[in-house]
Amino acid sequence: MTPTSPAPRTNKARFNVGNAVDWNLAAGLGGKLARPEPQTTDYTRTQVIEQLAESARASELPVREVTGLIEGGEVPEARIVNRPQWIHAAAQSMRAMTGGGHGDVTGEGAKPRMLTGRVAGVQTGAVLAFISSGILGQYDPFSNGGELLLVYPNVIAVERQLRVDPTDFRLWVCLHEVTHRVQFRANPWLAEHMSSSLDTLTGDGADQIGDLVGRLAEYVRKQRSGSADEPNSTGVLGLLRAVQAEPQREALDRLLVLGTLLEGHAEHVMDAVGPAVVPTVATIRHRFDERRQRKQPPLQRLIRTLLGFDAKLSQYTRGKSFVDDVVSRVGMDRFNAIWTDADTLPRLEEIEEPQ
């Protein structure tokens, strides 16, 4: 089964968001702002590209066996990209996700004529450039009917930094990213669930300024009293949820839960498959986790926080704990009831208390 790309939305909110960014400018500027890639020889570059492609193919069968998610059909090839190519693909995906249409971001109609579109394009390009140096791989369910991207310069940079076996590390990375491909291809409704939640999240709540100020004041009161104990109620996410109307807050929570489940499930699969196919998996996991927790310079730490990197790391750890706990209690076959439809996904409080 192939995930169906969400049909273009016609409501005003999605149109405004998806077409308010100059995606062509975002992709082009992002590519120019991306950090220089690690120095490699032509031989090393060719080797890592070929090995990542082969590792992605080799990961499919063990991932299917461990997850029990059998989506059948021919295994699609991964696309091995550099940083500017990933930025271009990400801009294309973001345009589709936010209702700006499908197809290449450089195509007809991809460029807004308003000044604000160019300003938004510059901002988006700068964010994508910053992110592009940290992405090892990504499954994009919104472009080209679903596509697995592997960013080979970043794989090279991290395996050098960690001083791990390159062949083992490349396969280990592919186990995680191929799990995402299997998740979406075995459950095509996931892409539409994400799309509809984004539709609501980016919609115009038409709130009065008094309502926004009131919700913000309540958020500050809870922070000061120490009563903000709900999941995702602190930090940038807490502030974002605080100023949103209830429909938008619920949509954000749905996206957070889904992201936590998907990442935690992929982490669980990596650890379940790894020992059988990756000889040095214990060393890789230990050093990779240490790298995730390493302190960043203050400015970089601030930027990462504002862009949600801390929330992303939390998704890995909280999601894996949830999946580990449930699978240990009921087994993977019964766990897979979670993929039935949107109503069987966990709630925020269930992520924290899986029992």
What does this molecule look like?
- This protein has 355 residues and is mainly α.
- The protein has a 3-stranded mixed sheet with strand order 1-3-2, sandwiched between helices.
- β2 and β3 form a beta hairpin.
- The relative contact order is 0.13.
Strand content: under 5%
Give start-end ranges of low-pLDDT stretches: 1-16, 206-220
User: How helix-rich are the residues, as a percent range?
Assistant: 55-70%
Shape: globular
Task: Output the strand order for the largest sheet.
Answer: 1-3-2
Biggest β-sheet strands, sense, barrel: 3 strands, mixed
In DSSP terms (H or I, runs of 4 or more residues), the helix count works out at 15
* C-alpha end-to-end distance: 32 Å
Oligomer: single chain
The string of secondary-structure elements, in order, is HHHEHHEEHHHHHHHHHH
Rg on CA atoms, Å: 20 Å
The secondary structure category is mainly alpha
Total DSSP E strands: 3
Average pLDDT score: 80
Characteristics:
single chain, 355 residues, mainly alpha, three-stranded mixed sheet, 15 helices, 3 strands, globular
Would you kindly provide a brief summary of this structure?
With 355 residues, the protein is mainly alpha-helical. The protein is 66% helix and 3% strand. It has a three-stranded mixed sheet with strand order 1-3-2, sandwiched between helices.
